[in-house]
Inverse folding.
């Protein structure tokens, strides 16, 4: 099913956006140093009222909320907003998450809406079984009329198994929830063709797919310095959403009623899937394509790259190099010889076997391995083009 969203106004249309994910950045929830690091309660109350309005017109809303580390750091008196070390961030998150979830629950309750807290790690969405559990839980909560409030479980996540920013988490949650759109509310009001501080910088209203030219426009800077994301992470989120045929919007939250400003005034950048990707991939391939942690990589020649784009499986003859330690069933990246990632796939062989088979025709595999080979290194049914 292709996305029917074409304009920012469509985000308020229950027929075109029945299920919306709204991500709220740390700098929006918590005042900076001059504000004492306290919660921007009046602003958040206005946003909650907008969420209640959306629910009242028939939309289901999921919130991905940052802010736990910033709130906890203030309570514990930690320097650098609690981001001086992993231990500081974990401790700050443990304290701040209680305050954050309580705040959302309190404000949503004033509109008669139940809040539900979900704390997720990268593994919860990378592991297929756990991903399906998240999908089922979200569906049941939404059907019951609750608003799920999701954050990364920073108290237990380590550097190796964490999202690191809630932009990509929001896009992965949107995939799991089969949402129609993601709205990233942040301290920027969209994607500019150069750094917004430069003279002549122009905000893009609509982007059809994240291309290399679009990636080159990303500034790594976050105006607040409080959050962990930046424009690069927002573009990665747009790519994850695109695979599932989900529209994504970057809009500023530095104003009262930020959703209405994006929808009614057209202030933001709307990312639409390219025509070739507008049709949603099968659920399993959406999960596979959105994976952020892969066990290895296979580099292929030009002929194999062309065959993959035409819907073929990956055969050993087209592989020129392997990377990483992986076993059968692990997710790997498939790259061209220039290093560009073409696809994600589940390998039918482990890394050692792949190294033996590189460049060899399928007819030679039995002699090389000593047993009957499988049909491909990565079967097309277990592969998704990016």
């Amino acid at each position: 099913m292709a996305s029917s969203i074409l304009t920012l106004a469509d985000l308020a249309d229950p027929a075109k956006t029945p299920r919306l994910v709204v991500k709220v950045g740390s700098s929006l929830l918590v005042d900076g140093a001059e504000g004492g690091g306290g919660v921007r309660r009046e602003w958040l109350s206005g946003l909650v009222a907008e969420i209640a309005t959306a629910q009242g017109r028939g939309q289901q809303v999921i919130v991905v909320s940052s802010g736990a580390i910033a709130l906890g750091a203030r309570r514990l008196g930690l320097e650098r907003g609690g981001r001086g070390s992993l231990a500081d961030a974990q401790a700050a998150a443990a304290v701040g998450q209680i305050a954050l979830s309580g705040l959302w629950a309190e404000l949503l309750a004033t509109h008669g809406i139940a809040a539900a807290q979900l704390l997720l790690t990268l593994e919860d969405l990378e592991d297929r079984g756990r991903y399906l559990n998240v999908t089922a839980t979200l569906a049941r909560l939404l059907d019951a009329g609750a608003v799920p409030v999701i954050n990364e479980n920073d108290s237990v996540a380590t550097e190796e198994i964490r999202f690191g920013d809630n932009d990509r988490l929001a896009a992965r949650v949107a995939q799991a929830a089969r949402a129609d759109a993601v709205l990233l509310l942040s301290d920027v009001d969209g994607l500019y063709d150069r750094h917004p501080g430069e003279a002549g910088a122009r905000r893009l209203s609509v982007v059809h797919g994240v291309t290399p030219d679009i990636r080159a426009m990303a500034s790594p800077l976050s105006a607040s310095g409080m959050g962990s994301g930046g424009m690069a992470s927002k573009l990665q989120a747009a790519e994850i959403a695109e695979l599932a045929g989900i529209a994504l919007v970057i809009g500023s939250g530095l104003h009262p009623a930020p959703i209405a400003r994006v929808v009614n005034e057209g202030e933001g950048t709307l990312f639409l899937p390219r025509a070739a990707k507008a049709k949603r991939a099968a659920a399993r391939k959406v999960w596979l394509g959105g994976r952020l942690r892969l066990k290895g990589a296979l580099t292929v020649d030009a002929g194999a790259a062309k065959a993959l784009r035409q819907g073929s499986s990956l055969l050993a003859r087209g592989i020129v190099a392997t990377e990483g330690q992986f076993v059968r069933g692990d997710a790997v990246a498939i790259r061209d010889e220039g290093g560009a990632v073409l696809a994600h796939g589940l390998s039918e062989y482990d890394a050692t076997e792949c190294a033996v088979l590189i460049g060899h025709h399928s007819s030679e595999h039995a002699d090389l391995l000593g047993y009957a080979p499988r049909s491909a290194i990565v079967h097309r049914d277990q592969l998704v083009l990016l």
In short: The chain has a mean pLDDT of 88. The radius of gyration is 22 Å. The chain is about 35% helix and 20% strand.
